[in-house]
Design a protein that fits this description.
about 15% strand; 7 helices; about 35% helix; eight-stranded mixed sheet; globular
């Protein structure tokens, strides 16, 4: 089996100009999802065989990123070099706009440091997708009992951070295109405080990947909306945060 290549993304990345195909111009969503389906099906088969490792995750995430770019989506990533300044794992805390960031962040972060997501249980039960998600050993929350979710994140997160694995947390209660501080909880700060690691903030815009009417995670792809990721400087957490 041919081994994937670990992606390398420049510290200040901007999508290079390219000419989308006629199909991509006519229907960016169809053009993207047809490519995405092939990537996910292959990754799912690899995960079922126990072959989907860190390298495969980063590489397939980069393929998804390239598939978005191939239909005209422009991606900007700023300040990746902060990840090289860290000598410990960290808690990444970012706003949550769409499914896009869960597909793209592994291509950006995993080549530089091992990382896992905090995810809702449904993502570990989706047909096809569950094999990939479960292979990454995410921290799973049910969103039914806040106390149980807090314990799962603090205990599971602290264990992974102790083993050198960083954690990505989206502290908003739901995905939204608005950034309202009142919608953010403090779970990422609490986890960082418990583990004694810094927080790395991520500001992102990903509404080029819309929310679906039938399936929320898979909506319209709109290349007119730029995608942006910006990493902030590591923030030490003092005391309980």
């Amino acid at each position: 089996m041919k081994q994937p290549v670990m992606p390398v993304i420049e510290p200040h990345y901007h999508t290079k100009p390219l000419k989308p195909s006629m199909l991509a111009k006519f229907s960016p969503s169809f053009g993207f999802y047809s490519k995405m389906a092939r990537i996910v099906l292959r990754s799912s088969r690899e995960a079922k065989r126990g072959e989907y490792k860190d390298l495969h995750w980063a590489a397939s995430s980069h393929e998804i990123m390239q598939a978005l770019e191939s239909v005209g989506v422009r991606i900007e990533i700023e300040n990746i070099e902060v990840l090289n300044k860290l000598n410990t794992p960290c808690v990444f805390v970012g706003n949550h706009m769409s499914t896009l960031e869960t597909f793209i962040l592994p291509a950006i972060i995993q080549p530089l440091r091992n990382v896992v997501f905090v995810v809702k249980r449904e993502l570990t039960e989706y047909p096809v997708f569950r094999y990939v998600n479960n292979s990454r050993k995410p921290i799973v929350v049910d969103r039914k009992n806040p106390k149980d979710d807090l314990k799962a994140i603090l205990d599971g997160g602290a264990e992974r951070l102790k083993n050198g694995i960083s954690v990505i947390v989206f502290p908003q209660t739901t995905r939204t295109t608005e950034i309202d501080p009142k919608t953010f909880n403090s779970i990422g700060i609490k986890l960082a405080a418990r583990a004694g690691v810094p927080v790395v903030p991520i500001a992102l815009r990903s509404d080029a990947w819309g929310m679906g009417k039938l399936i929320k995670d898979f909506g319209k792809i709109n290349p007119a909306k730029p995608v942006k990721f910006c990493f902030g400087e590591p923030i030490p957490v003092i005391g309980t945060g």
